[in-house]
Specification:
Rossmann fold, six-stranded parallel sheet, three-stranded antiparallel sheet, 10 helices, 281 residues, Pantoate--beta-alanine Ligase, Chain: A,domain 2, binds pantoate, 20% strand
Length: 281
């Protein structure tokens, strides 16, 4: 696995690789890799000839009171995991390499961001879309792999690709879970032992919603109320949101129908966790 820290080196290698007509797969990450990221690499390896991973904690997508400074990092561990997973090229730029000058412009996302994480993290998806557009321009991948745990991010990137005519196929991959159902996330290490136990109730409440829907309950407000009661009873985390929306449009629905997302964000003492399921009704 080759590791490069500059855009120039990255583009030299990409240019050479493209001469062989290799299909380039791209897995953008913020590091502190877990099996969720590695499953994206595994899928990219199946579909592509050459897999690029980026590790960059993007300051643009963190609000002033968010966990940018606390975001977990361990490059040596990430390097080994990426290498073992079969990544061909690891792009590991620093902030100055990605933003050598104060940016004169950024991508503004104004659809599908007044709900879910976009609502409580104003500007977050502008930061995500801006860095992903930059990374796509640097790597010029044929296919890019994102986890469905961040389903709103997947929906935003789908629109980024559509609106800017980007020549990349987006592949949304299923959420990987711990044995008790907790979605794998780099932020899970910031949970206390007690919170870690309780955090499985996030997935359990999603399963509760699924069960209600399968039993014929389609009223969004009622399902949300049941989930709220369950979470309040089973965990100390504060509910940031529970939302039941159409997917990928992310519109409110009183009566659920078609493809829907049921999504939760919960704030624990030092970690904000998100999870969702997408169902066809
Ligand atoms: O999902 C993430 O880790 C980040 O939002 C991404 C896509 C790497 C952009 O910084």
């Amino acid at each position: 696995m080759k590791i490069v820290e500059t855009v120039e080196e990255l583009q030299t290698i990409i240019k050479k690789t493209k001469k062989n007509e290799s299909v380039i797969g791209f897995v953008p990450t913020m590091g502190f890799l877990h099996e969720g990221h590695l499953s994206l690499v595994e899928q990219a390896k199946k579909d592509c000839d050459f897999v690029v991973m980026s590790i960059f904690v993007n300051p643009l997508q963190f609000g002033p009171n968010e966990d940018f400074d606390r975001y977990p990092k361990n490059f040596e561990r990430d390097r080994q995991l990426a290498n073992n997973a079969g990544v061909d090229l690891l792009f590991y730029p620093n902030v100055t390499e990605m933003y050598p000058t104060e940016p004169a412009m950024k991508v503004i996302v104004h659809e599908g961001v007044d709900v879910l994480c976009g609502k409580s993290r104003p500007g977050h998806f502008d930061g995500v879309a801006t860095v992903v557009l930059k990374l796509f321009n640097m790597v010029t991948p044929d296919r890019a792999y994102f986890g469905m745990k961040d389903a709103q991010q997947v929906a935003v990137i789908e629109k980024l690709i559509r609106d800017f005519n980007l020549q990349v196929v987006l592949v949304g991959c299923p959420t990987l879970r711990e044995e008790d159902g907790l979605a794998k996330s780099s932020r899970n290490v910031n949970l206390t032992a007690e919170e870690r136990q309780e955090a499985s109730s996030i997935y359990k409440s999603l399963q509760l919603a699924k069960k209600l829907i399968l039993n014929g309950e389609h009223k969004a407000a009622l399902i949300k109320a049941e989930m709220t009661t369950f979470l309040q009873k089973n965990s100390s985390g504060a509910i940031d949101y529970i939302e039941l929306l159409s997917y990928p449009d992310l519109h409110q629905q009183e009566q659920l129908e078609g493809k829907v997302i049921i999504a939760i964000a919960q704030q624990y003492s030092k970690a904000r966790l998100i999870d969702n399921i997408v169902l066809e009704i």
